[in-house]
């Protein structure tokens, strides 16, 4: 399949191009992009077309760090439902987790993952393009955008504890230092941004779990619809609807996906998963989010996750975290 990018992200690109006085509409049309599509929240555009626009922009713009200006041109609506889920996340850890989980909705030519490190929570951006110039600019675009998203939630003074970039040493290193507010390691093995644990686990004033949960349901459905062959995403979409009913059997899931149980097992195995693991992972993720919401009692969460008894939920949660649900909630409350 040809990798695509969410069309509304193109509005950020247009904003950057027009800051340099470039005719963005003409540039887009030269590379087969209809500017009207950029206002359609359901439209997607081949990622290769955006790479071509980026490469042409680099020929006209004298500043090689112009990708950093994405931070000045974005709006939550450019990211679709993910933008609003981000704004209402309870912590930056939760927000970054959503970003990584639904990254493919924004663009399929890159990916992100989170890693724990001694310095803090590290976001790794993986983007491999044939043209190194294009790759460097797009990574600048992505990392500056994520950094500004974090600052919108946590405050404009937020700075990472470390930035690593694979890009070659730029002429104006100061532009990166001024934007990120920390030392930058260029020529690194990966493109990473590390935030302190204190910053990522602080409860955010913009938190709204009800809206975030609604956005999550929309995002799961869209992820499942992005690629009908993505059985994992389709299973997760159904599980979010069915967990509270307790009917999460493998046979029921296979029926809903219009395939045999054996076919479902084989397709999940292609992703190194079993159905039991998928249910377990989904329950664990939801448990963490529900426990962050003081409006849900542990009894409520037990049944929301489809457990028949609180003791079963407690055993599962101890297996996941080493803590009981009440101990985990108390620990999070102290951190907050």
Mind explaining what this structure looks like?
- This protein is of the alpha+beta class.
- The protein has two domains: 4-201, H-NOX domain (Alpha-Beta Complex); 228-335, Orthogonal Bundle (Arc Repressor Mutant, subunit A).
- 54% of the residues lie in helices and 9% in strands.
- The protein is built from 17 helices and seven strands.
- The chain has a five-stranded mixed beta sheet. It has a two-stranded antiparallel sheet with strand order 1-2.
- Strand 5, helix 8 (173-180) and strand 6 form a beta-alpha-beta unit.
- Helix 3 crosses helix 7 (132-154).
- The longest helix is centred in the middle third of the chain and has 23 residues, at 132-154.
- It is globular.
- The termini are far apart.
- The mean pLDDT is 89.
What's the layout of helices and strands?
Blueprint: E1 4-6, H1 10-19, H2 24-30, E2 44-46, H3 47-60, H4 81-87, H5 92-101, H6 103-106, E3 111-116, E4 121-126, H7 132-154, E5 162-165, H8 173-180, E6 184-186, E7 191-195, H9 197-201, H10 209-226, H11 231-242, H12 250-256, H13 261-269, H14 275-291, H15 298-304, H16 310-321, H17 325-335
Summary, kept brief:
This protein is α+β, with helices and mostly antiparallel strands and 336 residues long. The chain has 17 helices and seven strands. The strands form two sheets. It has a five-stranded mixed beta sheet with strand order 3-4-7-5-6.
């Amino acid at each position: 399949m040809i990798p695509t990018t969410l069309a509304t992200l193109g509005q950020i690109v247009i904003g950057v191009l027009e800051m340099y006085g470039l005719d963005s509409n003409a540039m887009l049309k030269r590379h087969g992009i209809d500017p009207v599509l950029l206002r359609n929240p359901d439209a997607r555009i081949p990622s290769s077309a955006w790479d071509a626009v980026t490469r042409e922009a680099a020929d006209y713009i004298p500043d090689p760090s112009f990708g950093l200006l994405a931070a000045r041109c974005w709006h939550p609506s450019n990211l679709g439902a993910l933008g609003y889920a981000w704004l209402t996340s309870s912590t930056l850890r939760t927000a970054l987790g959503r970003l990584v989980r639904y990254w493919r909705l924004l663009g399929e030519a890159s990916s992100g993952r989170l890693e724990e490190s001694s310095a803090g929570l590290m976001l790794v951006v993986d983007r491999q393009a044939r043209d190194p110039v294009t790759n460097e600019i797009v990574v600048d675009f992505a990392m500056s955008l994520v950094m500004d998203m974090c600052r919108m939630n946590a405050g404009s003074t937020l700075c990472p504890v470390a930035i690593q970039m694979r890009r070659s040493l730029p002429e104006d290193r100061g532009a990166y230092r001024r934007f990120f507010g920390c030392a930058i390691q260029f020529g690194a093995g990966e493109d990473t941004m590390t935030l302190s644990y204190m910053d990522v686990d602080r409860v955010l004033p913009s938190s709204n779990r009800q809206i975030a949960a609604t956005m999550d349901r929309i995002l799961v459905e869209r992820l499942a619809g992005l690629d009908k062959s993505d059985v994992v995403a389709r299973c997760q979409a159904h599980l979010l609807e069915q967990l509270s009913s307790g009917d999460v059997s493998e046979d029921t899931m296979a029926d809903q996906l219009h395939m045999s149980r054996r076919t479902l097992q084989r397709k999940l195995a292609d992703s190194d998963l079993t159905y039991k693991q998928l249910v377990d992972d989904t329950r664990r993720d939801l448990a963490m989010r529900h426990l962050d919401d003081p409006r849900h009692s542990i009894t409520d969460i037990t049944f929301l996750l489809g457990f028949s008894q609180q003791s079963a939920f407690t055993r599962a949660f101890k297996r996941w975290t080493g803590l009981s649900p009440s101990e985990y909630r108390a620990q999070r409350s102290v951190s907050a």
